Amino acid sequence: MSQPRPTRSDLAAAYGRSVPDLIAPDLKVLFCGINPSLYSAATGHHFARPGNRFWPTLYAAGFTRRLLKPWEEELLLDQGIGITNLVPRATATAAELTNDELRAGRQRLARKVRRFHPRCVAVVGIGAYRVAFGRPQAAIGLQSELLGGSAVWVLPNPSGLNANHQLPDLAEAFKAVRSFVTGSARLGGRGNSPVPAQRADDDREPAKDAERNRQPGGHTKDLHHGRHHSRQ
Hints:
Blueprint: H1 8-13, E1 21-22, E2 29-33, H2 38-43, H3 54-60, E3 81-85, H4 99-116, E4 120-124, H5 126-132, E5 141-142, E6 151-155, H6 167-186, E7 220-221, E8 227-228
Parallel strand pairs: 1-7, 2-3, 2-4, 4-6
Antiparallel strand pairs: 5-6, 7-8
């Protein structure tokens, strides 16, 4: 069953809204986008904008048994997969975000990771990662530091606007994450993955900025497929 497309007025009204986190304890992978598009905020679903290749990439990488639609996102929890964002507020483009917002988002993400303990955090977007984590030379792939005890992986942005990576490239990058979390599970789960021992100081900001702790209107989708009304 398809979902109705938002109108222009719906998209305009979606500015600044957030999309509920899809999250649960002890996930295999917590995917972290940059921030919601207006389309995602208008529909209330992650990576919902037509042309975004996140869902085809998940399927091509073997994370899902079939191609899911954005409104079927809660099925990911059964596969040990969650979704969040660095910055909760929706914008027309990620370029509208400030560096301070991205750096504050890293601190918010660290708190979520400490609370929910995913095996791996996969940040989708190398540019946003470099700013948020204060790692200007970071490359796509497994990072040398942990975040809240979890491995960190950086992936290409699957947005249709990212012409540098086509679907086969995206699928290979996502497959590497899938292989990693499968291997770490065989080694005993979270905390036993083959990541260098260096650990990030989660409470130290990579640059001076005032963190915004709460976003009006946000919720969290939890393990029981309901929604907390704690704001993010």
